[in-house]
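Notes, Module 5: Reading structure tokens.

Key idea: the token line is not a picture. It is a compressed description, and you learn to read it the same way you learned to read a sequence, by spotting repeated patterns. We will look at two proteins. The first is printed below with its tokens.
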Amino acid sequence: MKSTVALAALVGVQTISALSVPTNVRNFYNRVKPSTCTGTEKLKGGFYDQDGGSAQWSYCRKAFPASGKHAIYLHGPSTKLANMDIDCDGDLSNPVDGRCGNSDDTQGQTRWKTEVQAASNNKIKDLNANIHPYVVFGNERDDGGATFDPRSVGIKPLSVMAVVCGDKMFYGVWGDTNGDDGPPLVGEASLSLATACFGTSMNGNNGHDPADVLYIAFPGDDAVPGSSANWGASNFQQFEDSITTLGNNLVARLS
């Protein structure tokens, strides 16, 4: 089931359709949020959710015997999941509004720029944070800080991920990684995805601080939309619609 909300951007109004959180996904959220990620479920720890915080966040894995599949998610101390910082990297040559202009930490390309060009048959040169819902997942650095490569557990670049924010769920793609320009952080998404979740108060320097967002990644080649995704979409909803069927198939594994 979808619910719709009109988001007033600086250039007009865009109607965003949010998916209601399916029962099995809500059950998964309620099961992992109060749980401790330990043992074989803890893939790698030592990450932060904000500058000046504590290194108590981890990449975790949960297996689902009924489907024979597993999923990767982020978890912090106690009942904390992850927050949502704002990523404005990539192609901003055609900005929807000026909110990414506030960012003091913008890179000119995303991690999978080459893969985006191939998947889109060169229709676009990179992801656009104003349009494409993408998640920053994985940590790459050369300074000795904590790192984690989701590819090591089967997550493919540009694969579809599910994001649960409050009573809404959206799909995005794994579109970028965290670098070494600060502590090894987790919990970040493109401006368009953050706006869909939390409204137009989100901007390049203002995200969602509470650690109550669930990011779910799915391993396997079948999680990658490839050319079936509308990479050349002109707005968030057009792209979101193009990956929803695949996203629905993936979250059905969570039981």
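Here is the second protein, with the sequence above and the tokens below, as before.
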Amino acid sequence: MASIKYIPPQTGAVDKYTERALRTGPLWLLLKDFGVLITVLPYLPLLFFPWNTKTKVDKTQGVSKAKSIENTIIQVFLGLLQVILLILFIPAIIALPGLVFLGVALLCMVILRLLAWPTQGPRILYSTNPTSASPTANQHPHERWVFINGIATGSSGLQANIDRLSHLFGRQVLGVHNRSWGIFVDLLECLLQRCLSYKTLDVRVACDIIKEYLVDTEVQKLILVAHSQGGIIASMVVDAMLTELPSDTVGKL
């Protein structure tokens, strides 16, 4: 079992507790995070396990197992293809003329996008449970629940996640789809978001939704749930809300 490290309130010496992003340059952070990524690469296959769980899930949840298997196959294929492209990157940049290399790189990006397209869907999804006929549907009219998914998650995977959360907590859950273009592209995006504060479209969509809920006078409580890369996106959203809105408004979160 992995150990858990408690980080106490940061009231001590400045150089002891302050967030490292405030004390180190972004490029150095990028290199350090890349080093961490290299050390954990052997664990990447665990993203696709376990295949099944013993947890009982409400049968009304409508995400088919076939869609989940399709997403997994596409993600594995994209990952293998990206590994091959990464291996060929250095020889290609040395051997090919500049414009030819740029053309080939652009073609590879288009191919990767097209291969990943079947896993995509709407930017915003809603849980299918509880329905309007559910006993819990109207019990919490002043709450809003939002979920942001992590890497290698297709539209069907996000739907399964928000349906599961809805089943567990008896609330309608809105899902912001952090789209995947393959494991290694997603990991690169994580590095850029963490170290360079790169605000992708997923971040901007989430900011709009969270701000809309926070300024809504009918909303008294907003629950934001995030997984994996979704946690990076959520932290950027919260930072943006703290700079734009009064503390009592952000306090709904």
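Summary for the second protein:
- The mean pLDDT is 85.
- The longest helix spans residues 65-95.
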